[in-house]
Amino acid sequence: MKTTITIITLSAVFAVVMEAAQLQQPTPLPGNVEKRDVIIWSDGVRMAGDLYLPKGLTKDKKLPAVLFCSGTGGTKKGPPQRLAPRFVQAGFVFLAFDYRGWGESDSRLMSLDKQPKPDAKGEVTVRARAIRWQMDFADQTTDIRAAISFLVGEPNVDPQRIGILGTSYGGGLVTWTAGNDPRVKCVAAQVGGMGGGRGPAAEQYAYGLATKQARAETEPVPFETGKMGGKMARYENMRVNPVKSIGFNAIEAAEKIRVPMILIDAENEELMDRHQNGERVAEILKKSRVPVAYHVLRGMTHYGIYREGFEEATRLELEWFNRHLKKQAP
């Protein structure tokens, strides 16, 4: 259905605030690496993606693929631009994308008035707000699964050898996805926020907020509300809706993971308790006898993973995907 709209955009304060690593300029692509701009559809929303492949691939060549999933405020123009060439040169197809409403992707829309009856073509004209920069577990796990679906249909990708790599907030998203999508054959999470440590009080608050949103006693989607505080206040463009975390639990999802997983944490993690996040997931996988590796980068802070810890983390991840995706080659 085609919809004609008038968009009320977010104010200039919602300019993208990237994680510290994303301020680094990517190096030019090597001559043997090709990048294609692609569109991925997720629940009717266009998402922008960058697909990296070795140049000169023949149509019958099938390679393993790795999907990158960003952390808070991250986009495909950040760390993926540095990671992609290394993965491609190691024999992988690499895909990075922007979640709906982030970066270059289209937004989900919220009608500001009651919608009129659709015409014969199913079209309506409405005033709508572009919903952007939401931390939305439900939407973003759907976005990740849509990106996996895109890779499954890519001619040069072996659909039986797809891995996912998530960083920070994205580390929790890929953990949940690995436990719920059988197409994922290997997973990596670095400095991943798994939601470890959230207790009954947080869930009670989320359900109370859900009631208020449903009854229009507060914003149905955070716009003026939902700002992050404390150490996360730097992401002033982002909005958090605790209601969308109801039913999302990466720790519980880890109980269902049956594919090899590597977790990389920072010794001096300042944003969360790594023992209740990455380390806890690693312990669950060990008990399940799933192939797992848990590494702590010494002397490192959360954002150091994108700077001084980048080389070591990337080496560990490449070794993991090489071992567990490539060995599955027919």
How is this structure best summarized?
With 330 residues, the chain is of the alpha/beta class.
Protein topology:
Blueprint: E1 4-8, E2 33-42, E3 45-54, E4 63-69, H1 80-89, E5 93-97, E6 108-111, E7 125-131, E8 134-135, H2 137-152, E9 157-167, H3 169-180, E10 184-190, H4 200-214, E11 239-240, H5 250-254, E12 261-266, H6 278-287, E13 292-297, H7 310-325
Helix pairs in contact: 2-3
Describe, in plain words, how this protein is organized in 3D.
This protein has one domain: 3-Layer(aba) Sandwich (Rossmann fold). An eight-stranded mixed β-sheet has the order 2-3-5-4-9-10-12-13, sandwiched between helices. It has a three-stranded mixed β-sheet with strand order 1-7-6, with no helix packed on it. A two-stranded parallel sheet has the order 8-11. The radius of gyration is 20 Å and the shape is globular. With 330 residues, the protein is α/β, with parallel strands linked by helices. 25% of the residues lie in helices and 25% in strands. Strand 4, helix 1 and strand 5 form a beta-alpha-beta unit.
